[in-house]
Design brief:
With 583 residues, the protein is of the alpha+beta class. The protein has 20 helices and twelve strands. Helix 7 crosses helix 15, helix 8 crosses helix 15 and helix 10 runs antiparallel to helix 14. The longest helix is centred in the N-terminal third of the chain and has 25 residues. It starts with 22 loop residues before the first helix and ends with a helix.
């Protein structure tokens, strides 16, 4: 039996190819003196089929009751102005409508299909609509602007070409493609923020950045972090959700928004079931026209979970990752032809600084701050592509300050007037000898951001950041070791006299550095008092400036002294900084 679709219009236009009105504009024309009689038929033509099919999934029957549930959901959503993308709101309303009907004894008597355990009855008995392992993604998705939700949902879950959500938003395809990249990054940033804000313990907050950075850059998790994931279900679920960003977000989004019937809804999507027939077996069809940086990500979506770029230990046989599976959707990206005049409106309107949400009725896309991230196919063991030198206070700066060696008590110095080829050494600590650590892993001289620290065979020298020698990436571990990513068996250490050497990693005090953030221009030449952690003394916390220091995990563990605690007392200030939002 054919599902009962609305009779108006008899030949509904495809979303994105209609008269050029966005969903938001159509919603605004539903009522009032200037009501447009075409608004409701167009909205039904765009979204009825998906709502009806999900209602049939929730009821476990394609009977007329599914059309009734879809109609009730439309009436509820269209009569209640609110923010967020229209399709996810309609599907959520369908789920709540069916659950409410199943709880009504009178309706259950009139509609026997409400008693099916595989349908409405099972939905009503579900203790939590959103699974516990998707709580962070739920909070992160609802914090996105409505336009970002629309782009993610229709490209990832519905597996539709980019022209479809572009038409729903009233923008052209190139604009939508740019906004989609930003929406994906913003969604991930919201997940990281939710993990920090909802962390049940101080230890979970401490591991926030230690989970985020290596998974984003493709590195391995520290053994301490892996052990924490085995013991902490909250952080283990967080790692699983962050790992979803390696490829398709469809399972994560569907389980987050829908919960009940998410997998069946994914399998029912026309864009997910039709396209693979023209592709090679086991591979999704490659996009005909893709934005730069999307090819590797599209390719990763066809891989199983265990071969993603940011595999966690669970994917390698460690921490279990139950329920994580990636399908192979075909994401076909087309070219739009509408005006680019709405780009400023969609990308510039937003809430307060640092707030990813929007007010009711605002569906504008807010772009996340630009940052440097590796392409999905990048190999963390090879040098990064040539970076662009940026001034101090760059948006992707993770930490800034001077690096004080624990054994020598002096700081890493760029060698007087910074210039390419100058050997780094040790000098009295001052605000002039600061370093900038950014997301690309390079360690730049704050005095001249075009110069980076290069770890040679035995010495550390300054080199042009754009030259191959200047593209040495580092990990600053929680123990204070400064390790070249390409060779984690070596470490930057204090040498004889005032020299700095690159030698084999042994975990000694000479290979440990404290990153101290200081106020610009503050003279810090005063002698530093030595503290012995083993005797119970605690050093005073480093002065925290406007930029919050950040410690990044290493690619491989190193030996630690027996008397060193799991979280050294000298790092209490950094622990507090890591628990706060990044600066």
């Amino acid at each position: 039996m054919q599902p009962p679709y609305p009779p108006h219009p008899p030949h509904p236009p495809r979303p994105g190819s209609g008269p050029g009105l966005s969903d938001r504009e159509l919603l605004a024309r539903l009522g009032g003196p200037g009501a447009d009689p075409r608004a409701l038929p167009l909205l039904l033509a765009r979204h009825w089929r998906a709502a009806h099919e999900y209602a049939a999934i929730c009821l476990a029957t394609p009977a007329s009751s599914a059309a009734m549930a879809a109609g009730a959901a439309f009436r509820q959503v269209l009569g209640t102005p609110a923010g967020g993308a229209l399709r996810p709101r309609l599907l959520t309303a369908v789920r709540w409508t069916v659950a409410g009907w199943a709880a009504d004894a009178g309706l259950t008597a009139l509609m026997p299909e409400l008693g099916k355990t595989t349908g409405a009855r099972g939905l009503r008995a579900t203790r939590a609509v959103t699974p516990e392992r998707r709580r962070l993604a739920e909070r992160a998705f609802h914090a996105l602007p409505g336009a970002a939700q629309c782009l993610l949902w229709h490209t990832e879950v519905e597996a539709e070409p980019i022209t479809i959500p572009a038409g729903l938003l009233g923008i052209d395809a190139p604009t939508a493609r740019t906004a989609l990249e930003r929406a994906r990054e913003q969604f991930r940033a919201n997940c990281v923020r939710a993990h920090r804000e909802l962390a049940p313990t101080k230890e979970c907050r401490f591991h926030n950045r230690l989970l985020d950075v290596p998974m984003r850059r493709g590195g391995a998790l520290l053994p301490d972090v892996q052990r924490h994931l085995q013991e902490c279900r909250y952080c283990r679920y967080a790692a699983e959700q962050l790992a979803s960003f390696d490829g398709s977000l469809a399972p994560l989004l569907a389980e987050t928004v829908l919960g009940w019937g998410a997998r069946r809804y994914l399998d029912s999507r026309p864009g997910r079931t039709a396209a693979p027939a023209t592709a090679a077996p086991g591979r999704a069809a490659a996009p005909a026209t893709a934005a730069p940086g999307r090819r590797a990500r599209t390719r990763d979506r066809t891989r199983p979970a265990a071969v993603g770029r940011h595999r966690t230990t669970a994917a390698r046989g460690g921490v279990p990752r139950a329920g994580f599976r990636r399908p192979a959707p075909a994401l076909l990206i087309g070219i739009g032809a509408t005006s680019v005049a709405l780009l400023a409106t969609l990308l510039a309107v937003g809430g307060r600084p640092g707030d990813n949400g929007v007010g009711p009725g605002s569906d504008a896309t807010r772009g996340a701050p630009g940052s440097h991230t590796l392409h999905p196919g990048a190999d963390p063991t090879h040098p990064a592509p040539p970076p662009t030198a940026a001034p101090a206070g760059h948006a992707d700066e993770l930490a800034r300050g001077r690096l004080r060696n624990r054994l020598a008590g002096r700081c890493l110095d760029p060698g007087g007037a910074p210039e390419a080829g100058a050997r780094a050494g040790l000098a009295h600590c001052s605000s002039a000898g600061q370093w900038s650590y950014r997301e690309d892993g390079l360690l730049r001289s704050a005095a001249d951001p075009a110069l980076c620290l290069d770890a040679g065979d035995r010495t550390a020298v300054l080199a042009d950041c754009a030259a191959p020698a200047g593209r040495t990436r580092y990990d600053l571990t929680v123990r204070g070791e400064l390790l070249p990513v390409r060779d984690p068996g070596r470490a930057v250490a204090a040498g004889p006299g005032a020299t700095v050497v690159v030698t084999g990693r042994d975990g000694s005090a000479g290979q440990r550095w404290d990153l101290e953030a200081v106020d610009d221009g503050a003279a810090e030449n005063r002698p530093r008092r030595r503290f012995d952690n083993a005797s119970g003394q605690q050093p005073p916390p480093a002065p925290v400036a406007r930029t919050v220091p950040a410690l990044l995990p290493a690619a491989a563990p190193g030996p630690a002294s027996a008397e060193e605690p799991a979280v050294p007392a000298a790092r209490e200030a950094v622990l507090t900084a890591l628990a706060a939002p990044p600066g």
